[in-house]
Amino acid sequence: MEQDKIINKIRKVLALTKSNYQEEAQAALLKAQELMAQHGITMSEIEISSKEVDLEKQVVDTCVSESRRNTWYEKNLSSIIGKNFRCHPYVTGGKGIYFIGLKEDVEIAKEIYLYALTTMLYLATNYVKENRNKIIRITSKQLKNDYMIGFLNGLKKRFEEQVESKGYALILAKDALVVQAVEEKNLIKKKGSKIVIAGSLDARQTGYRDGRNFNENKKMIR
After folding, report:
1. Mean pLDDT lowest for which of 13-27, 53-67, 84-98?
2. Which helix (H) or strand (E) covers residue 109, if one does?
3. 111-131 core/surface letters (b: 16 or more CB in 10 A; e: else)
4. Contact between 197 and 137 (Cβ < 8 Å)
5. pLDDT tens digits, residue range 179-216?
6. Whole-model pTM?
7. What is the CA radius of gyration of the chain?
């Protein structure tokens, strides 16, 4: 199963080598070669006609978090995860948060989104328990929001650095079928929610550090 995912990723990168822009095509080829060498995969294992590849693609519109009222941090987190896992997130009032993307991308994005959300809420709650009594005239909600603002900023920065250092920009480009599905949805962008904060620099810095250290491949909480 893991080998199939890697092969599919290489196929997607190779598809970008047909770009009319020489620099983009060359970068895609180098990335494909890097992945093949890293995982010991040969061209004979990944060769497949473009027609067959298109037939394999399946765009899905999946609810990743059911809720009558989604919070500001759930919306912000879905935006960060969606951007970095080739999905388009959107919120439907009274139903929850959805991801539009290729089936395999949405499955991965959903799993990471839910784990990141659980991790952030767990760490934020612990931070408030340990620090709430140290600061007067603030509520637990305000302090928790400060921490989560920091966590989300740190997580966003972590992904930005990963994209820059590993050259993931081309790989993260949304598939044309996904772009088409999003356009056909005619989604309307809604205004952001008002966030009550305590203005705690320590909470934000702690959250930022934890967000930067988030690793979707390793369990941060038990």
Report:
1. 13-27
2. helix 103-131
3. ebbebbbebbbebbeebbeeb
4. no
5. 999 999 888 877 777 898 989 999 999 999 999 999 86
6. 0.73
7. 20
